[in-house]
Amino acid sequence: MTKASLICNKKNNIDLVLEPIKGGDTISTLSIKELIEASEYTSLRISNSNIKNAVAELTDVLKPLQDKKIGRTIRYQVLERIDAKISITIESDEMGATAEITSAQGGKHLSAKAILNAAQEAGVKKGFSKEHLIQLAQLAAKQVPNSQVEMQIASGKIAVNGKDALIKPLVESAQARILKPKKREDGSVDMRDLGDIICVNVGDPIAQKVPLTQGKQGYTVTATLLPPEPGNDVELVAGEGTNISTKNTNILVSEKVGLPKLINNGMEVDEVYKIKNVTVATGNINFTGSVIVDGDVTEGMRVTASGDITVGGFVESATLEAGGDITISGGLIGRKHDIEKKHITNVTMSVNISAKGNIYAKYGQYAQITCHQDVHIENQLLHSSLDISGRLWIGKSEHANGKLIGGYTKAGTSVHAGIIGATAGSNTIINFEHKMLSFKHEIQQLEERLNVMSEKNNELKAAINKLKKLPKEKAKPELLAKIVPTYQFHANQMGELLNEKLALEENLQEYMTSIYIEATEKLYHGVELIVGDYNDRSRREYGPSKMFYRDRKILIDPIVNT
């Protein structure tokens, strides 16, 4: 019978060698494949066409032979060793490169070095991951023959933009000291001890400019450099009572003994008047600069300052007026009023504080508060009347967890507290009218100007029509030439005013939808929100909720913590 064997050739591939003998079992394509499957060459690539050719040629050779006669040897390469192949893909933005390897079929595997070389030939120059190169080479070597495996082998580096310059205070403000009182040795805090360094001396460094950074350059895998955007610069501002240091232009120093205060991009130092308590014995205080009261401001007294007012104790049935901030370590205590029988807006509170800056206090009750910026009450605010242009925040600086109970608040942007209202259903009214009145006033002024301009335009239009109707002998073209441009000028102005009015009306609507009340723990019944001509009140107890205006309605939605 014909003998079949697999023999390695000079190219290290495998030939099928057939030695034809007439008679015996027939050699077929199937028997040759069984021979291959039983051999050590199963991972090599099979040439099915050469197997068929070998079988066909065997048939031709055997046909003329006598029984048991030997024919010429037939030899065909039927198995080929195929080395692993690699394809490199560079992402469209050139920020990554991926290698895809088709695993070897009895041939050579790719080493990490070979993968690196292939990537470099494809144009990848930077950002290689040595770990990924090794990992991919090992993974491809373990794959079944002629299968694909891919992995990202290089990554670009995004440019890191520079940081903006910033102004860093080197001394604590009065507010920082009040909200972070000095600790005693036993761990308790002394709310009346403001410390000894609340005032700065001449030459003390009080603020530092941290310069902008240029950022870090990035690159693509093809080695294209990605330049960073440098940070924005700010100028260190020397406010009143300060100056730029002659030794370091990034340092701001005090020029006098006084109270440091943050301003935009800098600080200023107010002349400071320091007193233990304000009582009948000391009299009222009226000072150009800032005032520090270590203790209390007692009943009936008045403190007026062009700068900040800082009180280490309590303000009880007294009046404070500041051109800057007011910071009170203790609370605001006014005389109790029966505000359920008498509307709170008609009540004159015995404690009255007013600031053009911000107001900080631990708590307040039966207080009149007027503020051009934000009000921060740390614990609770009870039955008080507020007129503030900014935000009302009741609670810790990081979490509004205080109580707002009763009272009438006119706010500018938003109101935040843990609990708003009370189980007794005390009327708690919040009205956002400041900016709305301002918008409406501007709109009204524009309407008045539009009315005046409209009347003027009607007169000019009537004059133009009259001149056009005159017979030729009475025509006045020179007059018409003057009136027409005037009419056109006024018409254009009217168009601009109408656009301005529309923009203001849009801004008013945007403002109305931006203001809100937020109770992070409970919103009780009896809380009323007033937004212009729209108002409504809560009629039951809610969990964490937000009260706001939308589509001509006052709505209450739950706050979902994520």
Automatic annotation (TrEMBL):
Residues 86-265 form the Flagellar Assembly Protein A N-terminal region domain. InterPro entries: FapA, FapA_b_solenoid, FapA_N. Residues 429-514 form a coiled coil. Keywords: Coiled coil. This is Flagellar Assembly Protein A N-terminal region domain-containing protein.
